[in-house]
Design goal:
Layout (H helix, E strand, L loop, with lengths): L4 H18 L20 H10 L14 H11 L4 E5 L2 E4 H17 L8 E4 L5 H13 L2 E4 L6 H11 L4 E3 L13 E3 H5 L7 H8 L8 E6 L9 E5 H13 L8 E3 L8 H12 L2 E3 L9 H10 L4 E4 L1 H13 L11 E4 L8
Parallel strand pairs: 1-10, 3-4, 3-5, 5-6, 9-10, 9-11, 11-12
Antiparallel strand pairs: 1-2, 7-8
Helix pairs in contact: 3-4, 3-10, 4-5, 9-10
């Protein structure tokens, strides 16, 4: 009852094809292929994939090999464009780049952050969250988010596993940690108003990283045991965003509302992805994604054109909109993505 007949037939074909590769005639034990060389994709499926591939795409020149390269290029091309907003606060790309470079230099010069390090950040949704993420990327280190709502024991274990020697916090989370580990208050650091000079900027230029460097680290919930770390390289993240951009899911013309919690990787796609394609990012206040009246006002006031949410939250929000006759708030939405859970027809 678990699978229908068509699915069972397909599974059998894949298994048969796998065995054919393992036990080809005249194949000696020494010449047997390694597991990674075997394929469960059937020959006819290879043909279909080949026909769907389009290698003649004119790729956006603004998207480079790493997140910092892509962001810097976009920022210099859109200095006066609004990059991120939260209620009445906003930063242009030029302003965001300044704060990111300023804070990245503090991490490098004062705290010795370098390529290969993992820097943990525990903040609520805010402009500081965006500045922190992009600054970590600018140093060549890997970003690891910590949820302010996680128990202290989990936070401590994640910090231990990443060997992070500093934690980025802000005004709302500076008292979250009771154990002895250096913390940097993003808000306090960026308010020093230190001007950047050519020597400072040259230090950022000399940061060593490549497309195979780790961009960010995320941990599973640990519901089935010890939390497991997933690492994503710049190459993989950039290519994923490039694909999303090329098929038009979101582009530089879109205004993106950031819905996902920092414990889900969708928040990196929303924040970093939007900024490296040149779109406008709209952050919600803490817990704002659960305040449907507030969320509907954000959609209207900022003319949101792209939104991503898990099905459970999306269903509840759409039900609220229908019951309160405020469906018109969705009229500027051009693209809507939902996943991570079962999505039914309703």
């Amino acid at each position: 009852d678990l699978f229908d007949e068509t699915t069972v037939q397909l599974l059998a074909e894949r298994f048969s094809y796998l065995l054919d590769q393992l036990f080809e005639p005249n194949q000696t034990l020494a010449k047997q292929p390694s597991l990674h060389q075997l394929s469960i994709v059937l020959p006819q499926e290879h043909v279909l994939i080949h026909t769907l591939k389009n290698n003649d795409i004119n790729r956006p020149s603004a998207i480079f090999n790493t997140v910092p390269q892509s962001f810097s290029q976009v920022a210099f091309s859109h200095l006066q464009k609004v990059s991120v907003e939260l209620d009445q606060q906003s930063l242009t790309y030029g302003e965001l780049l300044f704060y990111v470079q300023q804070f990245a230099l503090l991490l490098i010069n004062v705290h010795g952050v370098k390529e290969g390090d993992v820097v943990c950040q525990c903040v609520e949704r805010s402009l500081s969250m965006v500045i922190g993420i992009m600054s970590i990327q600018m140093t060549g280190a890997s970003y690891c988010p910590l949820s302010p709502r996680d128990p202290s024991l989990r936070l401590y274990s994640l910090i231990e596993e990443t060997h992070s020697h500093i934690i980025l916090v802000h005004q709302l989370t500076r008292n979250t940690f009771q154990f002895n580990i250096p913390m940097i208050d993003i808000d306090a650091a960026i308010n020093t108003e230190k001007m950047l000079n050519d020597i400072d900027l040259s230090r950022l230029t000399n940061v060593t990283m490549n497309r195979d460097s780790i961009a960010y680290v995320l941990f599973t919930s640990g519901s089935t045991g010890t939390p497991k770390a997933a690492q994503l390289r710049h190459r993989n993240f950039i290519e994923a965003i490039r694909s999303i951009n090329e098929v038009g899911i979101f582009t530089e013309k879109d205004t993106v509302v950031q819905m996902a919690r920092c414990s889900f990787d969708a928040h990196v796609e929303d924040i970093v992805g939007t900024l490296i394609v040149g779109g406008t990012l709209v952050m919600l206040r803490p817990h704002g994604h659960m305040d449907f009246e507030y969320l509907s006002q954000v959609l209207v006031n900022h003319q949101i054109s792209y939104m991503q949410s898990v099905p459970t939250l999306l269903t509840a929000f759409l039900t609220y909109m229908k019951e309160n006759s405020s469906v018109d708030a969705l009229k500027t939405l051009r693209s809507l993505c939902s996943g991570g859970e079962y999505l039914d027809n309703s």
